[in-house]
Amino acid sequence: MSELTRVEPITVDPLLREVKSKQPLYKSLLRMLVSAAVIIGLWQAVVVIFEMPSFILPSPFAVFERLIERHQVLFKHGWVTAQEIILGLLLGLSMGLLFALQMLLFKPVKRWLLPLLIASQAIPVFAIAPLLMLWLGYGIASKIVMAALIIFFPITTCCFDGLRSTPSGYLELAKTMGATKWQMLRHIQFPAALPTLASGIRVAVVIAPIGAVAGEWVGSSEGLGYLMLQANARMLIDEMFAALFILSVLSITLYFVADKCLKKLIPWEA
Amino acid sequence: MSELTRVEPITVDPLLREVKSKQPLYKSLLRMLVSAAVIIGLWQAVVVIFEMPSFILPSPFAVFERLIERHQVLFKHGWVTAQEIILGLLLGLSMGLLFALQMLLFKPVKRWLLPLLIASQAIPVFAIAPLLMLWLGYGIASKIVMAALIIFFPITTCCFDGLRSTPSGYLELAKTMGATKWQMLRHIQFPAALPTLASGIRVAVVIAPIGAVAGEWVGSSEGLGYLMLQANARMLIDEMFAALFILSVLSITLYFVADKCLKKLIPWEA
Amino acid sequence: MSVDKQLLSGQNNAVSIDIVDGYLRYHDSADVILARLNIHIPARAWTCILGRSGCGKSSLLRYLANLLEDRVDWAGEVNTRPPCDSKDQITYMAQQDLLMPWLSALENVMLSTKFGAAHSSAKRTHLMVDKAHALLQKVGLKDKANYMPQQLSGGMRQRVALARTLLQDKPIILMDEPFSALDAVTRYRLQNLAYQLLQDKTVVLITHDPQEAIRLADQLYIMQGRPAFAESLIVPKSVTPRNFDAEFAELQQTIMGRLEQDYE
Amino acid sequence: MSVDKQLLSGQNNAVSIDIVDGYLRYHDSADVILARLNIHIPARAWTCILGRSGCGKSSLLRYLANLLEDRVDWAGEVNTRPPCDSKDQITYMAQQDLLMPWLSALENVMLSTKFGAAHSSAKRTHLMVDKAHALLQKVGLKDKANYMPQQLSGGMRQRVALARTLLQDKPIILMDEPFSALDAVTRYRLQNLAYQLLQDKTVVLITHDPQEAIRLADQLYIMQGRPAFAESLIVPKSVTPRNFDAEFAELQQTIMGRLEQDYE
Amino acid sequence: DTKTLTLMLDWFVNPNHGPVIIAKERGYFAAQGINVDIQEPADPSMPPKLVAANKVDLAISYQPSLIIDVAAGLPLIRSATLIASPLNTLMVLDNNNINDLSDLKGKKIGIAMAGNVEASIDTMLKTVGLNYDDVKIINVGWALSSSLASGRVDAIWGGLRNFEANQLALEGFKAKSFFPEDYGVPRYDELIFVANANTYDKAAIIAFNKAIEQASLYIAKNPQKAWEEFAAFAPDTLNNELNKLAWNDTFMHFSAHPAAADLQRYDDYAQFMYTKKAITTQPKAQDYVLSF
Ligand SMILES: Nc1ncnc2c1ncn2[C@@H]1O[C@H](COP(=O)(O)OP(=O)(O)OP(=O)(O)O)[C@@H](O)[C@H]1O
Ligand SMILES: Nc1ncnc2c1ncn2[C@@H]1O[C@H](COP(=O)(O)OP(=O)(O)OP(=O)(O)O)[C@@H](O)[C@H]1O
Ligand SMILES: [Mg+2]
Ligand SMILES: [Mg+2]
Question: How does C87-98 read in b/e, with b if 16+ C-beta sit within 10 Å?
Fold first, then answer.
């Protein structure tokens, strides 16, 4: 059945979208470029005005030079980090959803689990990082887990808050239709929670890189975090900033991709 | 006017609450204690089953002993960290709100600011921590800023997403009543956004400690993070875990206080 | 087995409900809403309930639909005959339209097919889609099947909700002011439609329109007083849907009188 | 200065509106909703609009209330006399009750006092609170002032929304089915109340109830066709609120005929 | 067949690790029949723990750290010495603000967290009539040079005489160092190799030590050539001015006889730490300092 009904909305969607996507792509690209220029300008200004020594804040030009000179190394490590982030996001997302569902479906679980959950979050991932390294080794697994851990709580909270604030009328209606708990979740609570969940995902996408990089700091032999630490240890501050730059680009790209997907998923919200 | 109208709801509130606060305090306390017992049990189990060497994961009893032996030191440093967290929360909250408001009120600002904002978040606070230390010194200020920075994005996102998803009917009504942008915000959008904002605040409360402790790791002379580093360097792993324990208790307390406050603020949500 | 079940329900769908000495109070308020409420809802017939705004009609209906269990104090008996678990026997149409904003009109109509024991063979699915389309056409929204709820007018939304109700096939139908947002002609037609499609069902209809009530009622109650009780009014002997005649007019006068009286 | 302004508005609140050759289409749909629509809304009088469900009544009202500016294509003229910025002159009551869930009934009634140029002297505030209480009493909700919207029945919510509308003091009032969720008697009383309180205002009332329209209309339009246009019907000469009489009945028949005809 | 040893350095590869890199580059390890897999940690406190937990075979650590670890019950032994003299210093900027340790009264000292900070600094200050409480200790993470250069702290503890001094010089700051061994702190081995006390592979360690000794000898004879070979290990990151300067200040410190150990030195230092209460039990050198 769902195949049949799911096909229908397509006919109205183009109409809906017609108004929304007024903004052509090149405009937002232009905006990005200008933003970037402004950031760089500010950065240079700080360097000049505060007479920043280059071992604290190098000038953007030095960083840019480094970026070009070392682009191969940077991309290689960037790719590793990107993998860690994306896999971490997937893992954290599914764990967060699962946890939220569990708290929702089994009220008692929530009461017992929540303090545990908060405690687990309150412990900075850094503190348990050595344990993770011991258990999962110095490879990619431990970083994925770090990234997942750091986004786990935002996802769980937003998802749970979203799921439990479904308008009661919807729930009542579904109840009279004989919806099982699971069907209620799937067809009513989940779609109704999507907007709040979307906030959670946006947050997650932006903080997941922190987890991955933090993981690399504790132990790794590749990735942008490793590169940054190494550069820092060697006083190659411009290289460190070049790595930071790649990381930022990665995050921004991820954010906008996620944002686009989320907007497609939730067309009924403005 | 507002003084007069604000007084009214009190008469109905007790009625509303009558049903909700069935759960007496001692019950939730009991639950906390049991949860704690479960955590400790699990912990001990991990220690025993995996034969964890005590320099990686000490047994809960050793940690507890340490906790009692060193409670004065722990509390002293805990108090410092608590201050950092709370002030960081306040700063981050107000900055996040301000930012979200700005993005909401001035659409163009949003377009230009958002990439900047994401980029700023993507850069792990850790990476700019040394810069912060150099600018703000090794005192409490830099940790407050770290905590504020780390919660800034979740707050901003949740607040912004909440503010912009006000049911359009409410906005239209207020518009016909001649609401200025500011009044609309104050009386319609803000209350309507509170549930989503609450999710953001819950997330913020739990991750703010990470910021503060990370700040202490990068540069400090007091606080739980400092204590943890010191203990680690001296191989006093049980002391490190005792500090972690205090940190967790701090976070959990903060979370529940925040949760209570938020629930008071949003009585109309289940 | 699914065929079996349907046959069974086809034979068995005559459920009558008796409410004896009903008492209802919301936990979060001191006011008693209903007290000493006695209502007989006969099987395969339309029971219409009228009453002052705020007297407790929706509360009663929601209680019958099992939606208030943990939010009210209830005393009194609710007996179904044959005895059955009323939970699985009821279709409920709320006073608000409650369309899901993420589903199109057609998908909203088909919402119930997503729930309950899943016997969704491809064929059955196809049947349901056809049925939903047919219902949408009957409520005058053939060309709006793919509109989202936000793109529909108030009356259209109510009609979608009605179609959603009519798609379900349970022996008891509870409807809370299902025609309130419709113009006179549409209302008249949809009354006929509902009458026709729900002929062998046990229907409880809440309405504010005395004419509507008289037109459709096999059994007519008016709720009065504070806390409210229900008084049965004698309806004309003619078959429903009735046309306007002298007896009709007289009953209408009686109803207005009762409502008026409740006001004092 | 605030006194000045009030005086001014007191003298000046007679605004009439003319719609000439109105055309309206939603951006996100290909259907034209209104075309060649001509309506004259006289000052200090009630203009009632009837029409098939979904014909575009609410759209028209929302356009007049400046709520559709960037979501529709509009062609045609809307002239106010005296020319004024209609934005600040309009009170709008939507088809949905739109009560804020975080405000009590009383606070919802007083919502408008929080907006606009702030002249909230303690005295004025006090006056407004009194006025709100008085209005709540008049709509029969004296004892529900502190209830939250979720604790009110559908009709009660609509009455709160009506009280909120009546609290505002603008020359033009646009009301979209304000009595649809009320029982006959309450409806009758609130019609009288509104009539009484809005005597020197320019009122546009959308309703599905021909009797209501005839009772209150100084000017009566029926919207017909697809896209819809408006036809003016001649109302009895008697003063509003009218009582039921032969002329009344005849007009009602005409209206039903028109609606019926629109259906074919 | 060759045996693979995993070796975790104390930090990213730097000139201090010269013999390890040279031994690997010149095939001395291979000649001894072992293959060494080099790993770099970001946190110097991790490698000994990993050895104790049997996750890696060998790690580079510091003598004070080893004493602390062994005192805390970690199953570790010293298997070889990499640099046999102290490199650590108390460093200040050479701008006439602090000419003598006694000028440190009330000043801020930045540290990179280590277990023997209090013991060492207190001892040094005692020689000029001050003590630990007369200064303010601030953890500055690993931003030692920049915190000193930027003036956020008045002195740093943990800067190495072959590294931080050059780093500061390159940034245009002249530094002045107070050596701990001149102010009452016992001499100790700066960099050592540690292995797991229970599971170490004696034959492999002997082979490893031989290769290291061979490399040290080679470096002592051909410092310039060795530098080029060292820098070629990872030219991107190693071949720069700072490392070159550091190399020139380092190569003469590499232990000529890595396997040999002066037990007395360990016991003296343990005694020092014990009396300063940096450790609560006093391990005996003969139990954890092994010569292969
Ligand atoms: N956002 C929208 N996008 C597209 N079409 C819309 C939108 N809103 C309303 N419509 C269409 O406009 C038409 C008129 O709607 P409107 O709400 O004005 O009807 P109405 O006369 O008020 O009906 P009712 O009496 O049922 O309230 C309908 O066909 C509806 O589908
Ligand atoms: N959640 C609640 N808590 C407290 N009181 C409630 C709640 N819901 C409804 N009530 C009260 O119950 C009474 C009956 O409400 P109900 O919705 O049943 O009225 P109704 O007869 O359906 O009215 P209407 O015709 O206006 O829809 C009202 O006085 C209302 O204030
Ligand atoms: Mg009702
Ligand atoms: Mg409408």
Answer: eebbbbbbbbbb
Q: Which fold has domain D15-89+171-264?
A: Rossmann fold (3.40.50)
**C154 CB within 6 A, ligand 1:** yes
Residue B127's DSSP bridge partners are none
Closest alpha carbon within chain A to D29: A15
Return d(Cα E66, Cα B71) in angstroms, integer. 28
B126 near A CB under 8 A:
yes
Asked if the bond preceding D241 is cis, omega within 30° of 0, the reply is: yes
At D27, which helix (H) or strand (E)?
A: none
C-alpha of residue C23 to centroid of ligand 2, in Å: 14
Ligand 2 centroid–CA C58 distance in Å is: 7
Residue E186 near residue B173 (C-beta atoms within 8 A) = no
In residues, how long is chain B?
270
Q: CA E117: distance to chain centroid?
A: 14
Mean pLDDT to the nearest integer, C243-252: 83
d(CA D54, ligand 4 centre) in Å = 7
Calpha distance A96→A116 (Å, rounded): 14
Mean pLDDT by 10 residues, chain E (292 residues): 87 90 93 90 82 90 92 92 92 88 90 83 92 89 81 89 87 89 91 93 93 94 93 84 90 91 92 90 91 82
**A168 to chain D: nearest residue by CA?**
D150
Containing D35, the helix (H) or strand (E) segment is strand D32-41
Is E10 within 8 Å of E59 (Cβ atoms)?
A: yes
**Inter-chain residue contact C27 with B19, CB threshold 8 Å:** yes
Assess whether chains D and B touch, using the rule of 3 or more C-beta pairs within 8 angstroms: yes
Mutate to test the pocket of ligand 1, among D23, D34, D59, D92 (most ligand atoms within 8 A of CB): D59
Dihedral (Cα; E68, A129, B44, B211), 10-degree rounding: 100
> What residue spans define the domains of chain D?
15-89+171-264, 102-169
- Bridging pattern class, strands E175-178 and C229-233: unpaired
Distances (CA, A) of D163 to D94, D110, D135, D148: 13, 9, 6, 15
How far apart CA E289 and CA E292 sit, in angstroms, is 10
Measured CA to CA in angstroms, residue B190 lies from A199, D76, D109 at distances of 16, 37, 19
- Give the residue from C199, C174, C176 showing the smallest Cα distance to C65: C174
Report the C-alpha gap between A97 and B21 in whole angstroms.
28
ipTM for the complex?
0.81
Beta-carbon separation of D185 and C156 below 8 A: no
The partner residue sitting opposite A130, judged by closest CB among E46, E149, E240, is E46
- Is the CB of D207 inside a 6 Å radius of any atom of ligand 1? no
CB C33 near ligand 2, within 6 Å = yes
pLDDT at site C5: 43
- Position A127 scores a pLDDT of 66
- List residues of chain A with CB under 8 Å from any CB of chain D: 15-16, 18-19
Q: How far is D245 from chain B (nearest CA, A)?
A: 38
- Residues 6 or more apart whose CB falls under 8 angstroms from that of B125 comprise A210, B146, B149, B150, B211, B214
Which residues are CB-neighbours of A26 under 8 A, at least 6 positions away? none
Contact C100 A169 (CB under 8 A): no
Q: Which residue has the tokens 């630990």?
A: E132
